[in-house]
């Protein structure tokens, strides 16, 4: 495994207690960063913080903040707690998200639709809104939004999820242009499905459908996602912003 240089950087990861977010935290710590995990699952958050403590480097550390990213006051408090613990926020990984189950567009509950949009799109917007002013003060920042290949293709029986992630790509492009001259780069990745706990909220039929669409005939490994996400979080990524990077095993070639 090559080492991505994040020495001395502070990385905030929403949804960092599990799945791709947790893999990103592991790789970030091995790369010399400090990590602040933001998640709404307090019990899982405490366990993940304890486990990650074993990977802390000479100068890094791990903190954890319980936060619901759909609530502005909790996000503002999370920023304050992170700055108190680490002194800066250099990198933001917007990884928290939900699937909302499966169903045709006309059968899905409108309340579930709204919840998915709230968590997957409005949540990252609110987090960016709270974190970007700090990055502007610092004169440096990297933001990576975890979208989905569903944003490009529109998965059947997942219109709420597909629409929320397509919106996240739009947010990435707009924010990337707004910050292009500020030394703050904003990019997105569009993973195919990674076999994590998010599968628990999907039907087997939908899981089989997703696998059938991947030319490499396997699901994404969270560690593979972490490699690309953290390169985008580093100074090595210097001339890409408002861009979308594929992680779909050949499913989407654009």
From TrEMBL:
In Gene Ontology terms, what is one molecular function of this protein?
A: oxidoreductase activity, acting on the CH-OH group of donors, NAD or NADP as acceptor
Q: Which GO terms describe its biological process?
A: fatty acid elongation
Q: Which InterPro entries match?
A: NAD(P)-bd_dom_sf (IPR036291), Sc_DH/Rdtase_CS (IPR020904), SDR_fam (IPR002347)
**Membrane-traversing stretches:** none
Which Pfam family is an annotated match for this chain, by its short name?
adh_short
NCBIfam families tied to this protein:
PRK07231.1, PRK12826.1-2
Q: Which family does it belong to?
A: Belongs to the short-chain dehydrogenases/reductases (SDR) family.
Which named protein is this? Answer: 3-oxoacyl-[acyl-carrier protein] reductase
At the highest ranks, the source species' classification is: Bacteria, Pseudomonadati, Pseudomonadota, Betaproteobacteria, Burkholderiales
């Amino acid at each position: 495994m090559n080492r991505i240089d994040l020495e001395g950087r502070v990385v905030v990861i929403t949804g960092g207690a599990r799945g791709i977010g947790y893999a990103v935290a592991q790789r970030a710590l091995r790369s010399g960063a400090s990590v602040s995990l933001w998640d709404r699952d307090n019990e899982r958050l405490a366990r993940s913080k304890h486990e990650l403590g074993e990977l802390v480097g000479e100068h890094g550390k791990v903190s954890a903040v319980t936060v619901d990213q759909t609530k502005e006051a909790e996000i503002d408090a999370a920023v304050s707690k992170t700055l108190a613990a680490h002194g800066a926020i250099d990198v933001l990984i917007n990884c928290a998200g939900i699937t909302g189950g499966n169903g045709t567009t006309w059968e899905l509950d409108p309340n579930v639709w709204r919840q998915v949009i709230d968590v997957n799109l409005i949540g990252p917007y609110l987090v960016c809104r709270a974190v970007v002013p700090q990055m502007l003060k610092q004169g440096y920042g990297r933001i990576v939004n975890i979208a989905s290949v569903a944003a490009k293709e529109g998965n059947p029986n997942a219109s709420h999820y597909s629409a929320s992630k397509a919106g996240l790509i739009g947010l990435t492009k707009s924010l990337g242009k707004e910050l292009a001259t500020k030394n703050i780069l904003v990019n997105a990745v569009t993973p195919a499905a990674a076999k994590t706990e998010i599968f628990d909220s999907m039907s087997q039929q939908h899981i089989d459908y997703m696998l059938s669409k991947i030319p490499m005939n396997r699901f994404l490994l969270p560690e593979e996602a972490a490699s690309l996400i953290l390169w985008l979080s580093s100074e090595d990524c210097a001339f890409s912003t408002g861009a979308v990077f594929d992680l779909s095993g050949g499913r989407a070639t654009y």
